[in-house]
Predict the 3D structure of the following.
Amino acid sequence: MGLKLFRCCLMVMVALCIFSTSAFGGEVEVLHWWTSGGEAKSVAVLKELLEKEGHIWKDFAVAGGGGDAAMTVLKSRAVAGNPPTAAQVKGPQIQLWGDEGLLANLDDVARAEKWDELLPKVVADIMKYEGSYVAVPVNVHRINWMWANPEVFRKAGAQLPTTWEQFEVAAKKIKKAGFIPVAWGGQPWQEATVFEIIVAAVGGPDFYRRALVDADAKALSSPTMVKVLEIMKMIKQYTDKGAPGRDWNLATAMVIQGKAAMQFMGDWAKGEFTAAGKSPGADYIAMPAPGTSNQFLFNVDSFIMFKQKDPGAKEAQKAMARLILQPEFQKVFNVNKGSIPVRLGMPRAPFDDPALRAMSEFIASATGGGLVPSMAHEMAVFPAIRGAILDVVTNFYNSDMSAKKAAAELAREVEAAM
Ligand code: GAL
């Protein structure tokens, strides 16, 4: 009798196990590039939520800010017929992956969770391929920020700049006082980040769109572009010798530690200040980069999902997509990451002042015409065009090429890449 009962229990347990792994628990291998202190803390939230639902998170982190290294790895995995379950992919590239026919359709999750109502249309459109959701957005980052150490400014007797002329005045004083004015990360994507900020500052949003969204040759070789490039070279005098190759988070650390006065970088830099226990307003200042106060260069992180055969993996994918847009994840992730929720109507209370400012200015810039997609962060043009721009900008910055020659080259290389 006892033995029979034991057997019976065992059978029920085995059945439950099979049922739960095939219908509920599954593994997602997630490719991403979030490896800095603030980034790792943020992505851990998603892993935790998924594991709470009985799924397995297989981490596939490819270090390298901006994701260029991660994209190379992703392409080789896909070519080998072995893509991960989910991958961090952004902007127009989502369409290219859609063309390959490799992406899972997320419409049933999107319908059940009402994504069309929860997402700004500008974001929802990027996530769809031929009208169906194939990607899920995580956040909205703003690129055009300046991160400053107020103590360094005070010691140098310098004012926080709101124009590039004021920047030069402040940078001179900071250098004279023995500090590094600008914490510079000498990698192409970081140089392109500062470049596009200056494009917005000098040319305004219409010029930005013509040059970096439409990739218009006239705009790329115009006198406005020459001015942009000259400002970039002017900034170079206020960087240090250790800049080449420096990771963005190490540049942020220089501001945190009071070695450097400022960094121009998207608000993932805030994630580093937060992880270091620093408070905005008191320990550091976050303000729009000079000349860009009415503009919002946006960068939306998102995950694409690759088609799966295994029912467990399919379930895990759907759970991941659902959890990403739920309020709990949107709150904790974005507080850690420095970004703002992509889900509309989230409570403002948990967010700090820079995030609240970003939330208001996202909406204001959308109506005022100042909302533009980031070129450096894959939101504006296809990878071949972005690659051409990054090459020219980096070559120019790291050589004695004239701004005029670089502007002409920009137009030429971009046309060749089209
Ligand atoms: C961006 C990405 C951000 C941030 C940054 C540095 O492209 O959108 O989430 O992580 O790279 O790695």
